[in-house]
Amino acid sequence: MFRQNAQVPQNLTKEHEEKEYFLLYYQFIKHAFGIDYCNPREKDQIILKLYFDKLPDTKKKNKEFKGYIYALNDFFCINNVHIYNEDIAEVNSKNHVILQCMDIILGAMNFKLNNMNKEKLPNSNKRGKRTIAKEKLYKKILENIKDIYPNFNIGVSTSNRGDFANNWKDSDRHWCFKSKNSIFDSTLTKKAK
Question: What are the residues facing 114 on neighbouring strands?
Fold first, then answer.
């Protein structure tokens, strides 16, 4: 999931701004994975376990967020998918190889989306070794994604190709989150800068 900064949400309340991280992740869990399509026959009980990187707020606010995630049972249970309180956990990504890999992939995408691949060393016209290495990593990740989606575009959501069940079936998906009440501000694009 990523968000384009040029899509500026409108009419946000102070509460929206304070809970920005949590509101975004709630929508991400609810919609991005196609969980409501993971159990089409509804015969088996599916138990969803969610591991969040350390949540960035107070214990009280983090607990409130986990309560909202737990309440997704009302949304998912119609497909016999369940979330238990003990299966909503905070972890340190440094202790989880899969989360470390996700951090690398997301970092590479962010690197490219924000034109960091063009950054030069101070007082120089050359790019640094780390910038070059990150660009190589991005290109390798992109090559692997294009094996799955030949026409993949890093800046747009992956199409479900007319079938919402593909949100669950696809092995790799990219979701550009855009709130319903946002407007596009072209002065915030890479080209404007």
Answer: none
Q: pLDDT 10s per residue in the chain (193 long)?
A: 887 888 898 999 999 988 888 998 899 899 888 998 998 887 889 999 999 989 989 999 999 999 999 999 998 988 899 999 999 999 998 899 988 988 888 888 888 888 889 999 999 999 999 999 999 999 999 999 999 999 999 888 889 999 999 999 998 888 888 888 899 988 887 776 5
Asked whether 192 and 186 are in contact (CB, 8 A), the reply is yes
pTM confidence score: 0.77
Are the C-beta atoms of 130 and 137 separated by less than 8 Å?
A: no
Which residue, among 101, 185, 90, has the nearest Cα to 144 in the 3D structure?
Answer: 101
- What's the rounded Cα separation, in Å, for the pair 144 and 121? 29
Length of the chain: 193
Task: Yes or no: say if 175 and 155 are a contact pair by the CB < 8 Å rule.
Answer: no
